[in-house]
Amino acid sequence: MALTLRVLCPDQNVFDGQADEVILPSTTGQLGVLPGHVSLLTALDVGVLRMRDGNQWTAIALMGGFAEVDDDEVSVLVNAAEPASGINAEEAQKQLSEAEQAWSKFDGQPNSPDKIKAQQAFQKARARLQATKAN
């Protein structure tokens, strides 16, 4: 028995298919979902969704949102998502380095819109790079 997984963004359907296992980046930590999982609704952090089909693992970088698990269906609604297969690892590493430098300029400073924006850019860049390493 498998899970039906849907990953949806406002502008696209990123994934719609079957998976034997799904690992979600919830705001309280990694959340594993197998067939027969109890129903739940959870907030998702910026991070990597991992799904297993047989022995094959696939990753999708998620940019925050929500997930619902109900009757072996996992619906993931996110602000943005990018399959690892579409991410250039070298470019992702470069973006992470740039985002880390931009964020480090705010060390020791109180929160400001610019600091929060830099932190979010860092988290997104890190998720993209992690997704390339998850496959």
Structure description:
The chain has 135 residues and is an alpha+beta fold. It has two domains: 3-84, F0F1 ATP synthase delta/epsilon subunit, N-terminal (ATP Synthase, domain 1); 88-134, Orthogonal Bundle (Helix Hairpins). It is 28% helix and 46% strand. The protein has two helices and eight strands. Strands 1, 2, 3, 4, 5, 6, 7 and 8 form an eight-stranded mixed sheet that branches. A hairpin with a 2-residue loop joins strand 6 and strand 7 (73-78). Helix 1 (89-104) packs antiparallel against helix 2 (113-134). It is globular, with a radius of gyration of 16 Å. It starts with a strand and ends with a helix. The mean pLDDT is 94.
The total number of structural domains is: 2
Specify the CATH class of the largest domain. Answer: Mainly Beta
**Averaged pLDDT, please?**
94
The CATH architecture category of the largest domain equals Sandwich
CATH superfamily membership of the largest domain: F0F1 ATP synthase delta/epsilon subunit, N-terminal
Shape: globular
C-alpha termini separation: 23 Å
Strand-residue fraction? over 45%
Number of strands: 8
Order of helices and strands: EEEEEEEEHH
Tally of DSSP helical segments: 2
Largest sheet: 8 strands, mixed
Function: Produces ATP from ADP in the presence of a proton gradient across the membrane.
Family: Belongs to the ATPase epsilon chain family.
Subcellular location: Cellular thylakoid membrane
Keywords: ATP synthesis, CF(1), Hydrogen ion transport, Ion transport, Membrane, Thylakoid, Transport
